[in-house]
Amino acid sequence: MGAYEAFMPAGFPMLSDAKLRTLKPREKLYRVADAGGLCVEVTPQGSKLWRLRYRIHGRPKMISLGAYPETGLAAARAARDAAKALVRDQVDPSAVRRERRLAAAEASLNTFEAVASEWLEKQRHSMAAATYRKAQWMLGLAHSHLGRLPLREITPQKALACLRSIEAVDQRHETAHRVKGRISQVFRYAIACGKADADPTASLKGALSPVVSTPRAAVTDPARIGALLRAIDGYNGSPLTRLALQLAPMVFVRPGELRGARWEEVDLESGEWRIPGPRMKMREEHLVPLSEQAVAVLRELHQLSGHRTLVFPGMASPRKPMSENTINSALRRMGFEKDEMSGHGFRALASTRLNEMGWSPDVIERQLAHVERNKVRAAYNRAQHLAERRKMMQAWSDYLMSLKAPGSTVTPIRSRSA
Which residues are catalytic? Predict the structure, then answer.
Protein backbone atom coordinates (compact mmCIF):
# COMPACT_ATOMS: atom_id res chain seq x y z
CA MET A 1 0.00 0.00 0.00
CA GLY A 2 3.02 2.30 0.40
CA ALA A 3 4.22 4.15 3.48
CA TYR A 4 2.97 7.44 4.91
CA GLU A 5 5.53 10.21 5.05
CA ALA A 6 4.48 11.33 8.54
CA PHE A 7 1.90 10.72 11.18
CA MET A 8 -0.10 13.47 12.84
CA PRO A 9 -2.94 13.53 15.33
CA ALA A 10 -6.30 12.45 13.87
CA GLY A 11 -8.14 15.25 12.12
CA PHE A 12 -5.06 17.49 11.87
CA PRO A 13 -4.58 18.61 8.25
CA MET A 14 -1.06 18.03 6.95
CA LEU A 15 -1.46 19.19 3.40
CA SER A 16 -1.58 22.58 1.73
CA ASP A 17 -1.41 23.65 -1.88
CA ALA A 18 2.14 24.82 -1.33
CA LYS A 19 3.17 21.41 0.01
CA LEU A 20 1.31 19.54 -2.73
CA ARG A 21 3.28 21.44 -5.34
CA THR A 22 6.57 20.44 -3.76
CA LEU A 23 5.88 16.70 -3.60
CA LYS A 24 8.32 14.92 -5.91
CA PRO A 25 8.18 11.37 -7.28
CA ARG A 26 10.37 8.73 -5.64
CA GLU A 27 11.55 5.31 -6.66
CA LYS A 28 8.53 3.80 -4.94
CA LEU A 29 4.97 4.99 -4.50
CA TYR A 30 4.36 6.92 -1.28
CA ARG A 31 1.41 8.66 0.36
CA VAL A 32 1.08 11.85 2.39
CA ALA A 33 -1.88 12.08 4.78
CA ASP A 34 -4.28 14.95 5.19
CA ALA A 35 -7.11 14.51 7.69
CA GLY A 36 -10.12 12.23 8.07
CA GLY A 37 -8.62 9.40 6.03
CA LEU A 38 -7.72 11.59 3.06
CA CYS A 39 -4.26 11.30 1.56
CA VAL A 40 -2.44 12.02 -1.66
CA GLU A 41 -0.61 9.19 -3.39
CA VAL A 42 2.53 10.11 -5.34
CA THR A 43 3.54 7.58 -7.99
CA PRO A 44 7.06 7.03 -9.38
CA GLN A 45 5.78 8.60 -12.62
CA GLY A 46 4.92 11.81 -10.77
CA SER A 47 1.10 11.50 -10.64
CA LYS A 48 -0.58 12.81 -7.49
CA LEU A 49 -3.77 10.87 -6.78
CA TRP A 50 -6.29 11.48 -4.03
CA ARG A 51 -7.24 8.46 -1.93
CA LEU A 52 -9.70 8.05 0.95
CA ARG A 53 -9.45 5.32 3.57
CA TYR A 54 -12.66 4.37 5.39
CA ARG A 55 -14.34 1.44 7.12
CA ILE A 56 -17.77 0.12 6.20
CA HIS A 57 -19.48 -2.79 7.93
CA GLY A 58 -16.25 -3.41 9.83
CA ARG A 59 -14.09 -3.73 6.71
CA PRO A 60 -11.34 -1.31 5.66
CA LYS A 61 -11.69 0.11 2.12
CA MET A 62 -10.10 2.75 -0.08
CA ILE A 63 -11.47 4.80 -3.01
CA SER A 64 -9.96 7.33 -5.37
CA LEU A 65 -11.15 10.95 -5.39
CA GLY A 66 -9.40 12.26 -8.50
CA ALA A 67 -5.94 13.57 -9.37
CA TYR A 68 -4.13 16.74 -8.32
CA PRO A 69 -4.12 19.47 -9.60
CA GLU A 70 -7.28 18.75 -11.67
CA THR A 71 -8.97 18.03 -8.34
CA GLY A 72 -7.71 20.64 -5.90
CA LEU A 73 -7.27 20.27 -2.15
CA ALA A 74 -10.61 21.91 -1.32
CA ALA A 75 -12.47 19.71 -3.82
CA ALA A 76 -10.78 16.57 -2.48
CA ARG A 77 -11.78 17.46 1.09
CA ALA A 78 -15.36 18.11 -0.03
CA ALA A 79 -15.44 14.71 -1.76
CA ARG A 80 -14.06 13.13 1.41
CA ASP A 81 -16.80 14.74 3.49
CA ALA A 82 -19.51 13.55 1.08
CA ALA A 83 -18.16 10.01 1.12
CA LYS A 84 -17.93 9.92 4.90
CA ALA A 85 -21.52 11.17 5.15
CA LEU A 86 -22.56 8.09 3.17
CA VAL A 87 -20.50 5.86 5.47
CA ARG A 88 -22.29 7.33 8.50
CA ASP A 89 -25.55 6.21 6.87
CA GLN A 90 -24.07 2.72 6.36
CA VAL A 91 -23.83 3.28 2.58
CA ASP A 92 -20.65 2.20 0.83
CA PRO A 93 -19.30 5.06 -1.35
CA SER A 94 -17.62 2.59 -3.71
CA ALA A 95 -20.96 0.82 -4.28
CA VAL A 96 -22.63 4.17 -5.01
CA ARG A 97 -19.88 5.00 -7.49
CA ARG A 98 -20.23 1.59 -9.18
CA GLU A 99 -23.98 2.09 -9.56
CA ARG A 100 -23.42 5.52 -11.07
CA ARG A 101 -20.93 4.12 -13.56
CA LEU A 102 -23.36 1.39 -14.57
CA ALA A 103 -26.13 3.96 -14.95
CA ALA A 104 -23.88 6.16 -17.08
CA ALA A 105 -22.90 3.18 -19.24
CA GLU A 106 -26.56 2.24 -19.66
CA ALA A 107 -27.44 5.83 -20.54
CA SER A 108 -24.73 5.92 -23.20
CA LEU A 109 -26.32 2.86 -24.83
CA ASN A 110 -29.87 4.15 -24.44
CA THR A 111 -29.56 7.38 -26.36
CA PHE A 112 -32.54 8.45 -28.42
CA GLU A 113 -30.72 7.73 -31.67
CA ALA A 114 -29.67 4.23 -30.57
CA VAL A 115 -33.13 3.22 -29.34
CA ALA A 116 -34.85 4.86 -32.33
CA SER A 117 -32.64 2.80 -34.67
CA GLU A 118 -33.45 -0.33 -32.66
CA TRP A 119 -37.19 0.36 -32.84
CA LEU A 120 -37.06 1.19 -36.53
CA GLU A 121 -35.22 -2.01 -37.37
CA LYS A 122 -37.98 -4.01 -35.68
CA GLN A 123 -40.55 -2.21 -37.87
CA ARG A 124 -38.71 -2.89 -41.13
CA HIS A 125 -40.79 -5.95 -42.04
CA SER A 126 -44.12 -4.45 -41.00
CA MET A 127 -43.74 -1.14 -42.85
CA ALA A 128 -44.03 -0.48 -46.55
CA ALA A 129 -40.64 0.50 -48.00
CA ALA A 130 -41.78 4.09 -48.57
CA THR A 131 -43.17 4.34 -45.03
CA TYR A 132 -39.92 2.97 -43.61
CA ARG A 133 -37.87 5.54 -45.50
CA LYS A 134 -40.15 8.36 -44.32
CA ALA A 135 -39.86 7.15 -40.72
CA GLN A 136 -36.06 7.15 -41.08
CA TRP A 137 -36.17 10.70 -42.42
CA MET A 138 -38.50 11.95 -39.67
CA LEU A 139 -36.44 10.44 -36.87
CA GLY A 140 -33.34 11.87 -38.53
CA LEU A 141 -34.86 15.34 -38.10
CA ALA A 142 -35.08 14.68 -34.36
CA HIS A 143 -31.53 13.35 -34.01
CA SER A 144 -29.85 16.76 -34.28
CA HIS A 145 -31.55 17.81 -31.02
CA LEU A 146 -32.24 14.54 -29.22
CA GLY A 147 -30.02 11.92 -30.83
CA ARG A 148 -27.16 11.88 -28.32
CA LEU A 149 -29.31 12.38 -25.23
CA PRO A 150 -30.09 9.41 -22.95
CA LEU A 151 -33.84 8.77 -23.06
CA ARG A 152 -34.30 9.53 -19.37
CA GLU A 153 -32.79 12.99 -19.88
CA ILE A 154 -35.29 13.99 -22.58
CA THR A 155 -37.90 16.18 -20.93
CA PRO A 156 -41.10 17.52 -22.51
CA GLN A 157 -39.33 20.88 -22.82
CA LYS A 158 -36.43 19.36 -24.77
CA ALA A 159 -38.80 17.44 -27.03
CA LEU A 160 -40.79 20.61 -27.65
CA ALA A 161 -37.64 22.57 -28.51
CA CYS A 162 -36.79 19.91 -31.07
CA LEU A 163 -40.24 20.00 -32.64
CA ARG A 164 -40.39 23.79 -32.74
CA SER A 165 -37.06 23.88 -34.55
CA ILE A 166 -38.63 21.65 -37.22
CA GLU A 167 -41.69 23.92 -37.38
CA ALA A 168 -39.46 26.95 -37.88
CA VAL A 169 -38.08 25.63 -41.18
CA ASP A 170 -40.48 26.78 -43.91
CA GLN A 171 -43.49 26.47 -41.57
CA ARG A 172 -43.34 22.67 -41.56
CA HIS A 173 -46.21 22.27 -39.10
CA GLU A 174 -47.44 18.93 -40.43
CA THR A 175 -43.90 17.53 -40.43
CA ALA A 176 -43.45 18.55 -36.78
CA HIS A 177 -46.66 16.75 -35.82
CA ARG A 178 -45.57 13.62 -37.69
CA VAL A 179 -42.12 13.67 -36.06
CA LYS A 180 -43.83 14.03 -32.67
CA GLY A 181 -45.77 10.86 -33.44
CA ARG A 182 -42.59 8.95 -34.33
CA ILE A 183 -40.81 10.16 -31.19
CA SER A 184 -43.78 8.94 -29.16
CA GLN A 185 -43.58 5.50 -30.81
CA VAL A 186 -39.89 5.24 -29.92
CA PHE A 187 -40.61 6.13 -26.28
CA ARG A 188 -43.51 3.69 -26.00
CA TYR A 189 -41.16 0.97 -27.22
CA ALA A 190 -38.46 2.10 -24.78
CA ILE A 191 -40.92 2.08 -21.86
CA ALA A 192 -41.95 -1.47 -22.71
CA CYS A 193 -38.26 -2.50 -22.75
CA GLY A 194 -37.48 -0.78 -19.44
CA LYS A 195 -35.27 1.83 -21.10
CA ALA A 196 -37.47 4.85 -20.34
CA ASP A 197 -40.01 5.79 -17.71
CA ALA A 198 -42.34 8.15 -19.59
CA ASP A 199 -43.14 9.56 -23.01
CA PRO A 200 -42.17 13.26 -23.01
CA THR A 201 -44.48 14.01 -25.96
CA ALA A 202 -47.57 12.94 -24.02
CA SER A 203 -47.89 16.35 -22.38
CA LEU A 204 -47.33 18.37 -25.56
CA LYS A 205 -50.91 18.37 -26.78
CA GLY A 206 -51.69 21.82 -28.11
CA ALA A 207 -48.07 23.00 -27.86
CA LEU A 208 -47.46 22.86 -31.62
CA SER A 209 -49.08 25.03 -34.25
CA PRO A 210 -52.18 23.28 -35.62
CA VAL A 211 -52.04 21.70 -39.06
CA VAL A 212 -54.38 23.23 -41.60
CA SER A 213 -55.33 20.22 -43.68
CA THR A 214 -55.86 20.58 -47.41
CA PRO A 215 -57.72 17.90 -49.32
CA ARG A 216 -55.98 15.96 -52.08
CA ALA A 217 -56.37 17.66 -55.43
CA ALA A 218 -59.07 15.78 -57.29
CA VAL A 219 -61.63 16.40 -60.03
CA THR A 220 -65.08 15.40 -58.74
CA ASP A 221 -67.54 17.31 -60.94
CA PRO A 222 -69.02 14.83 -63.47
CA ALA A 223 -68.53 17.14 -66.44
CA ARG A 224 -64.92 17.81 -65.50
CA ILE A 225 -64.34 14.07 -64.91
CA GLY A 226 -65.55 13.44 -68.46
CA ALA A 227 -63.11 16.05 -69.77
CA LEU A 228 -60.29 14.42 -67.80
CA LEU A 229 -61.07 10.96 -69.19
CA ARG A 230 -61.19 12.28 -72.76
CA ALA A 231 -57.86 14.06 -72.24
CA ILE A 232 -56.34 10.80 -70.98
CA ASP A 233 -57.58 8.91 -74.04
CA GLY A 234 -55.96 11.56 -76.24
CA TYR A 235 -52.66 11.65 -74.36
CA ASN A 236 -49.84 11.50 -76.92
CA GLY A 237 -46.96 10.68 -74.58
CA SER A 238 -45.68 7.23 -73.61
CA PRO A 239 -48.29 4.46 -74.22
CA LEU A 240 -47.44 3.02 -70.78
CA THR A 241 -48.24 6.36 -69.17
CA ARG A 242 -51.51 6.66 -71.08
CA LEU A 243 -52.57 3.16 -70.05
CA ALA A 244 -51.61 3.84 -66.42
CA LEU A 245 -53.80 6.95 -66.53
CA GLN A 246 -56.67 4.97 -68.06
CA LEU A 247 -56.41 2.22 -65.43
CA ALA A 248 -56.00 4.53 -62.42
CA PRO A 249 -59.61 5.80 -62.18
CA MET A 250 -61.02 2.28 -62.67
CA VAL A 251 -59.08 0.68 -59.81
CA PHE A 252 -58.39 3.79 -57.61
CA VAL A 253 -55.49 2.21 -55.71
CA ARG A 254 -52.69 4.31 -54.24
CA PRO A 255 -50.19 5.63 -56.82
CA GLY A 256 -47.35 3.51 -55.42
CA GLU A 257 -49.50 0.38 -55.54
CA LEU A 258 -50.37 1.09 -59.18
CA ARG A 259 -46.80 1.86 -60.27
CA GLY A 260 -45.46 -1.24 -58.53
CA ALA A 261 -48.00 -3.65 -60.05
CA ARG A 262 -46.47 -7.00 -61.07
CA TRP A 263 -47.88 -9.35 -63.67
CA GLU A 264 -47.78 -12.25 -61.21
CA GLU A 265 -50.42 -10.40 -59.14
CA VAL A 266 -52.90 -10.09 -62.02
CA ASP A 267 -55.33 -12.81 -63.13
CA LEU A 268 -56.98 -11.60 -66.31
CA GLU A 269 -59.13 -14.70 -66.70
CA SER A 270 -60.82 -14.33 -63.32
CA GLY A 271 -60.66 -10.53 -63.42
CA GLU A 272 -58.73 -10.08 -60.17
CA TRP A 273 -55.67 -8.18 -59.04
CA ARG A 274 -54.30 -9.36 -55.69
CA ILE A 275 -51.81 -6.91 -54.24
CA PRO A 276 -49.66 -8.66 -51.59
CA GLY A 277 -49.46 -7.24 -48.08
CA PRO A 278 -45.83 -6.06 -48.28
CA ARG A 279 -46.83 -3.65 -51.09
CA MET A 280 -49.82 -2.23 -49.24
CA LYS A 281 -49.75 0.72 -46.86
CA MET A 282 -51.64 -1.28 -44.24
CA ARG A 283 -49.51 -4.40 -44.87
CA GLU A 284 -52.53 -6.59 -45.70
CA GLU A 285 -53.30 -8.27 -49.02
CA HIS A 286 -55.80 -6.29 -51.08
CA LEU A 287 -58.11 -7.66 -53.77
CA VAL A 288 -59.08 -5.39 -56.66
CA PRO A 289 -61.99 -6.80 -58.72
CA LEU A 290 -61.26 -5.88 -62.35
CA SER A 291 -64.06 -4.61 -64.55
CA GLU A 292 -64.30 -5.59 -68.21
CA GLN A 293 -62.81 -2.22 -69.12
CA ALA A 294 -59.91 -2.63 -66.68
CA VAL A 295 -59.14 -6.09 -68.09
CA ALA A 296 -59.12 -4.60 -71.60
CA VAL A 297 -56.56 -1.99 -70.54
CA LEU A 298 -54.42 -4.65 -68.88
CA ARG A 299 -54.52 -6.84 -72.01
CA GLU A 300 -53.21 -3.89 -74.00
CA LEU A 301 -50.55 -3.35 -71.36
CA HIS A 302 -49.58 -7.03 -71.57
CA GLN A 303 -48.59 -6.53 -75.19
CA LEU A 304 -46.16 -3.83 -74.07
CA SER A 305 -44.75 -5.16 -70.79
CA GLY A 306 -46.02 -8.74 -70.45
CA HIS A 307 -42.49 -10.06 -70.97
CA ARG A 308 -41.32 -8.15 -67.91
CA THR A 309 -41.98 -8.53 -64.19
CA LEU A 310 -43.52 -5.10 -63.74
CA VAL A 311 -46.71 -3.95 -65.39
CA PHE A 312 -45.35 -0.39 -65.54
CA PRO A 313 -41.55 -0.68 -65.91
CA GLY A 314 -39.50 2.48 -65.80
CA MET A 315 -38.04 3.87 -68.99
CA ALA A 316 -34.53 4.26 -67.56
CA SER A 317 -34.47 0.92 -65.75
CA PRO A 318 -37.15 -1.69 -66.61
CA ARG A 319 -36.42 -3.51 -63.36
CA LYS A 320 -37.76 -0.52 -61.44
CA PRO A 321 -41.32 0.85 -61.66
CA MET A 322 -42.12 4.04 -63.52
CA SER A 323 -41.24 7.23 -61.69
CA GLU A 324 -43.60 8.51 -59.03
CA ASN A 325 -43.67 11.81 -60.92
CA THR A 326 -44.79 10.30 -64.24
CA ILE A 327 -48.54 10.43 -63.64
CA ASN A 328 -48.52 13.94 -62.17
CA SER A 329 -46.30 15.22 -64.97
CA ALA A 330 -48.67 13.79 -67.56
CA LEU A 331 -51.64 15.46 -65.86
CA ARG A 332 -49.84 18.82 -66.02
CA ARG A 333 -49.13 18.31 -69.74
CA MET A 334 -52.84 17.73 -70.26
CA GLY A 335 -53.68 21.02 -68.57
CA PHE A 336 -54.69 19.81 -65.09
CA GLU A 337 -52.81 21.88 -62.49
CA LYS A 338 -51.51 20.44 -59.23
CA ASP A 339 -54.27 22.12 -57.22
CA GLU A 340 -56.91 20.49 -59.45
CA MET A 341 -55.81 16.88 -59.99
CA SER A 342 -53.06 14.51 -58.87
CA GLY A 343 -52.29 10.83 -59.15
CA HIS A 344 -53.67 10.30 -55.66
CA GLY A 345 -56.75 12.27 -56.64
CA PHE A 346 -58.26 9.29 -58.50
CA ARG A 347 -59.00 7.79 -55.07
CA ALA A 348 -60.78 10.93 -53.88
CA LEU A 349 -62.62 11.14 -57.22
CA ALA A 350 -63.97 7.59 -56.81
CA SER A 351 -64.72 7.94 -53.10
CA THR A 352 -66.63 11.20 -53.54
CA ARG A 353 -68.75 10.07 -56.47
CA LEU A 354 -69.48 6.56 -55.17
CA ASN A 355 -70.62 7.92 -51.80
CA GLU A 356 -72.80 10.54 -53.50
CA MET A 357 -74.37 7.82 -55.64
CA GLY A 358 -75.48 5.72 -52.71
CA TRP A 359 -72.99 2.87 -52.58
CA SER A 360 -72.40 1.45 -49.10
CA PRO A 361 -69.64 3.37 -47.28
CA ASP A 362 -68.34 0.06 -45.88
CA VAL A 363 -67.96 -1.34 -49.40
CA ILE A 364 -66.24 1.82 -50.64
CA GLU A 365 -63.88 1.95 -47.67
CA ARG A 366 -63.01 -1.71 -48.09
CA GLN A 367 -62.20 -1.15 -51.76
CA LEU A 368 -60.08 1.87 -50.83
CA ALA A 369 -58.10 -0.49 -48.54
CA HIS A 370 -58.85 1.56 -45.46
CA VAL A 371 -58.34 -1.48 -43.28
CA GLU A 372 -60.68 -2.25 -40.39
CA ARG A 373 -58.61 -2.21 -37.18
CA ASN A 374 -60.58 -5.04 -35.57
CA LYS A 375 -59.08 -8.17 -37.19
CA VAL A 376 -62.15 -10.37 -36.70
CA ARG A 377 -64.47 -7.76 -38.15
CA ALA A 378 -62.03 -7.11 -40.97
CA ALA A 379 -62.04 -10.78 -42.03
CA TYR A 380 -65.83 -10.82 -41.87
CA ASN A 381 -66.11 -7.64 -43.95
CA ARG A 382 -63.74 -8.95 -46.61
CA ALA A 383 -65.96 -11.95 -47.21
CA GLN A 384 -69.24 -10.06 -46.83
CA HIS A 385 -68.36 -7.23 -49.20
CA LEU A 386 -66.59 -9.05 -52.02
CA ALA A 387 -69.67 -9.71 -54.16
CA GLU A 388 -70.87 -6.13 -53.69
CA ARG A 389 -67.40 -4.81 -54.50
CA ARG A 390 -67.31 -6.73 -57.78
CA LYS A 391 -70.68 -5.30 -58.70
CA MET A 392 -69.60 -1.78 -57.71
CA MET A 393 -66.32 -1.88 -59.64
CA GLN A 394 -68.04 -2.93 -62.88
CA ALA A 395 -70.77 -0.32 -62.44
CA TRP A 396 -68.12 2.29 -61.70
CA SER A 397 -66.21 1.59 -64.93
CA ASP A 398 -69.49 1.68 -66.88
CA TYR A 399 -70.20 5.05 -65.28
CA LEU A 400 -66.77 6.40 -66.22
CA MET A 401 -67.28 5.29 -69.82
CA SER A 402 -70.61 7.09 -69.94
CA LEU A 403 -69.05 10.25 -68.48
CA LYS A 404 -66.49 10.60 -71.23
CA ALA A 405 -68.97 10.16 -74.06
CA PRO A 406 -69.31 13.67 -75.61
CA GLY A 407 -72.69 15.27 -74.98
CA SER A 408 -74.02 12.32 -72.94
CA THR A 409 -76.56 12.77 -70.16
CA VAL A 410 -75.23 10.91 -67.13
CA THR A 411 -77.47 9.31 -64.53
CA PRO A 412 -76.28 7.99 -61.16
CA ILE A 413 -75.04 4.40 -61.26
CA ARG A 414 -77.08 3.61 -58.17
CA SER A 415 -79.57 5.64 -56.18
CA ARG A 416 -79.44 5.90 -52.41
CA SER A 417 -82.76 4.14 -52.19
CA ALA A 418 -81.56 1.13 -54.18
Answer: 254, 281, 344, 347, 370, 380
